Amino acid sequence: MYDFFMPNVNFFGRGAVKVTGDRCKILGAKKALIVTDRFLSQLAGGPVDKVTDSLTASGISYVIYDGVEPNPKDTNVLAGLKVYQENDCDLILTIGGGSAHDCGKGIGIAATHEGDLYENYAGIETLTNQLPPIVAVNTTAGTASEVTRHCVLTNTKKKIKFVIVSWRNTPLVSINDPELMVGKPAGLTAATGMDALTHAVEAYVSLGANPVTDAQAIQAIKLISENLRQAVAYGGNIEARENMANASLLAGMAFNNAGLGYVHAMAHQLGGLYDIAHGVANAVLLPHVEKYNIISNPRKFAHIAELMGENIDGLSIRAAADKAIAAIQKLSEDINIPSSLRDLGVKEEDFELMAKLALEDGNAFSNPIQGKMEDIITIFQSAY
Fold first, then answer.
1. Residue 253 contacts residue 146 (beta carbons within 8 Å)
2. CA-closest candidate to residue 17, choices 257, 168, 151, 178
């Protein structure tokens, strides 16, 4: 038996952002808290303007909280909560990538649950109360937080990145409009695209994989391999953007139900301790973790190689599996992802602490090989 989580309603394709106001009205909203970052809120004619136009047309008032930071902090959540409460909002509308969506989920949790987010709610299905309605308008192809039950935040006092996983976090509506993603910087496109690939690969080989998530992960890997380079090379390539949006969403649906693995468990420590961009941390770690995992299911890794365009004719299953690792590294190289943790300023003396915390991260429990602290340290060293 397995279950499957995703938003009740999902909109895809060019111009989908126009339905935002109508969907908020259907949910009974009178005043929405828009959760976004300062760049998007000040971008004339950008995603926030398009959303607010739609809200106004539907007769819904709104207030904007634009204090979201990359790797959203608990302090961002509390600042947004204050705006939500002081303005008597009744719906949370997130606009952006994973940082905005996770911050919005965090505000929803804080609005309905007492106590410290990290101390009281980090973990799986710790939430007991219904959150305010959440509508997620996505502007990047990567995190897929707009369709997941994961809320990833950073505890600023302990410098720990933690996850609150609950079906209650899942937005009621997700909107993926590739026109909102056109023109995004190459570096952001590369990092978020590798985040999506990591979601797909980890979900495909995880202990929680099932036939439904496998189908989603397979298509996501194929779409990313065929479109990420083009989206990075020319940000105005609407076809590549649309394919990447679909790939990100499929990968999100896959890992939302199959789980992830050591890449995310380890990357969260890099984000918490060093504030490294999540997609970049994933990209650097991905080939090293999967090289460690490869003996768990060589046939699936051989299939990953094939999906990524490698010729595996005449090769043994193991030799074909090794080509998957090479294909991942080549993709990262082509889109100018840093090649090592050393390049990101990580210190070797932190490996032991990060390894300990990684094994306590909720994503570690679905990794296909359940290792020890020494194994995680070795992977960090390999990626260094």
1. no
2. 178
Q: Is the pTM of this model over 0.70?
A: yes
Residues 313 and 324: their CA atoms lie apart, in Å, by 14
Token code pair at residue 68: 């979201």
The dihedral sign for the CA sequence 204, 207, 208, 210: positive
In sequence order, which ranges of the chain are alpha helices (DSSP H)? 20-26, 38-42, 47-57, 74-86, 98-112, 117-121, 186-205, 211-233, 238-258, 262-274, 278-293, 298-307, 317-334, 351-360, 373-383
Averaged in consecutive runs of 10 residues, what is the pLDDT profile of the chain (384 residues)? 82 94 96 96 94 97 96 95 98 95 97 96 94 95 89 91 92 94 91 96 97 97 97 94 94 94 96 91 97 97 97 96 97 95 94 95 94 96 95
Number of neighbours of residue 83 by Cβ within 10 angstroms:
18
Q: Can you read off the two tokens belonging to residue 186?
A: 């190459």
Q: Can you read off the two tokens belonging to residue 137?
A: 């308008």
- Of the candidates 375, 361, 149, the one whose C-alpha atom is nearest the C-alpha of residue 270 is 361
Cβ atoms of residues 349 and 357 within 8 Å: no
Q: Classify residue 349 as exposed, middle or buried by CB count within 10 Å of its CB (0-12, 13-18, 19+).
A: exposed
3-state SS class at 64: strand
Question: What is 118-168 written as a DSSP string?
Answer: HHHH-EES---SPPPPEEEEE-SSS--GGG-SEEEEEETTTTEEEEEE-GG
Cβ atoms of 265 and 282 within 8 Å: the answer is no
